[in-house]
Amino acid sequence: MDLHITNILNDLKKDDFQAYLLTKFTNVEYISGYKPTSFAFCIIKENPIIYASGMDMELASRDSSIEVREHDSFESMIGELKKEGIKRLAIEPTLPFSTYARFRDDFEIDSKTYIDKQRMIKTPDEIEKIAEATEIAQKSFLQLDILNNKNTEKEVAFDLVRAMIENGASKESFDTIVATGAESSLPHAIPQDKVLQQPVLIDWGAIYQGYCSDNTRTVVYSERQQEIWDIVAEAHDKAIKAIRPGIKCCEIDKVARDIIEGYGYGDKFIHSTGHSLGLDIHETPGFSLRDETVIEKGMVITVEPGIYLEGEFGVRLEDTVEISKRGNVIGNLPLNIL
Amino acid sequence: MDLHITNILNDLKKDDFQAYLLTKFTNVEYISGYKPTSFAFCIIKENPIIYASGMDMELASRDSSIEVREHDSFESMIGELKKEGIKRLAIEPTLPFSTYARFRDDFEIDSKTYIDKQRMIKTPDEIEKIAEATEIAQKSFLQLDILNNKNTEKEVAFDLVRAMIENGASKESFDTIVATGAESSLPHAIPQDKVLQQPVLIDWGAIYQGYCSDNTRTVVYSERQQEIWDIVAEAHDKAIKAIRPGIKCCEIDKVARDIIEGYGYGDKFIHSTGHSLGLDIHETPGFSLRDETVIEKGMVITVEPGIYLEGEFGVRLEDTVEISKRGNVIGNLPLNIL
User: Fold this and answer.
1) Which of A56, A97, A207, A269 to mutate to test the interface with B (most CBs of B within 10 A)?
2) pLDDT of residue A1 exceeding 90
3) Among A96, A158, A162, whose Cβ lies nearest the Cβ of B93?
4) pLDDT at B1 over 70
5) In sequence order, what are the residues at sequence separation of 6 or more whose Cβ sits closer than 8 angstroms to the Cβ of residue B44?
6) pLDDT digits (tens, 9 = 90+) for A127-174
7) Which residues of chain B are within 8 Å of residue A309 when distances are taken between CB atoms?
8) pTM, whole model, 2 decimals?
9) Integer Cα distance of A145 and B163 in angstroms
10) Beta strands of B27-148 (E only): which ranges?
11) Cα nearest neighbour of B93 on chain A
């Protein structure tokens, strides 16, 4: 049996559960190789099974490494689970309330992060895919010629996505952010129909064989912008240098936050220092104030400090870091692309 | 106070709830005009409020029509709600279990579809945006010159998205499907790196000012493909003709399904006949076997019968229908684009 499944079965046994219900598409993909397009109930137990939507049966039968049956009704699915003696059922924290409500009268239920914990530690094969996604994304970025670009934010975002797809990505890993001028102070800005202003903040990523990349670069033009850029770059570099197995995620956040606070911009750094990525663009753990997870070899986490001056501009710099003996930046795009 | 909020307050009162928690981004957008980019807790009560992420505060303050406060912690949010005398709290069916679990010890909780029910009935302004999205999408489709197109599925999908953005869309309303040859038998196929084969099935849509469009066309080339196309077209046309306020959604599904079954392909029509759309690409109600919702004026629902012959090919034809005195197709793209 697949190692991922064996590990989960061990977790279940320890906590006295007989089954684990997965419905999140990337979780089902992680376990079985089949990524649902409509809905699916993947139940990890001694003999794991996926109840798939009728419209997915051809795809699921082709891609899944575990048994697939067509979903008929909640009643029949629940009936079969009870017949197998399943009494205590673990669920994902993200399971929608209405789905939980379908199961709660028939099983003792609690949410468990077994699958998230497995997904925290990437295999060499997963890391290779993230590295390839990053390479595609960075190569595509360099093709944009940002410094001489007279296009609109929307056009630049679009050209970047096109380049990534031409370079082998299946798609972008999230809505590309091209935020320039005052818009750059919105961490999740939406590209506008305006010609690039200054500074230019671009946050982008590719998906390659299901795996995401994530980078941000900010090109600054004035002395004031450069001053902020230098602070963010210092926070970025020192946070990455501090990364090693054995210390806690929140300690890395503190390294970046302390530097920015030291320059008096603590209240302008309005998000966490980073997040894990993989099949999803946001995974756990993250470099945040409250995340006490101990960093381990095989984790892949972004480092993306930023300073946002409302009404003026913002600067963010982001790289993705693979944890081995220390934190290794994935890709080789300089922070300063001038 | 906004009519949407007033209606929900009335619903709450009837069911003896004191507040309604919304976290789904499009629900928060529907109520407040602010679309979260990270997370938000929108609480509908006598004095409605949104607890937004720190990184969204600039955006939320700019866009929201209701009060916005920065989210601090679950404890403080729950404390404030209790101080206001809130005992019974309604939630969305889609609320993640882990969020529900944060509230369940302090409130009596049940999920309610008040917001989905409001969103079922579109205002004239919403319908206009859906119509504009549809016009952009259909115009862009015609620019592709499918009949003489020698590009790959991936390239065609990409060109279609580019055309939609150039024609005024903010983005595609879902991952564009360009499925040709045998791949067309997968209802949610992913575009491949292969030059268009026959038949060509394209399922695509635009977003305009937040609102989605959705269409499918299939171009067939052989007699056998035409035979299947004719059956699907008959199901499509007769289902649309049957639409009028007062009859049930499942009756429309039955019209389409009976026709396809009559020709012996009942088991090859592997999904519902249609779904509502609006701010989301999939909303309720839907034209499905089990949906007993009575059709009302102002609903906007797709009609998209299909026949999928595994290993051979598939045909799907889809239009979006606005319900007034009868079912009016939105847009004017012929079913047969040859």
Assistant:
1) A97
2) no
3) A96
4) no
5) B5, B8, B9, B12, B19, B20, B22, B31
6) 999 999 999 999 999 999 898 899 999 999 999 999 999 999 999 999
7) none
8) 0.94
9) 23
10) 40-44, 49-52, 67-70, 88-91, 108-111
11) A98
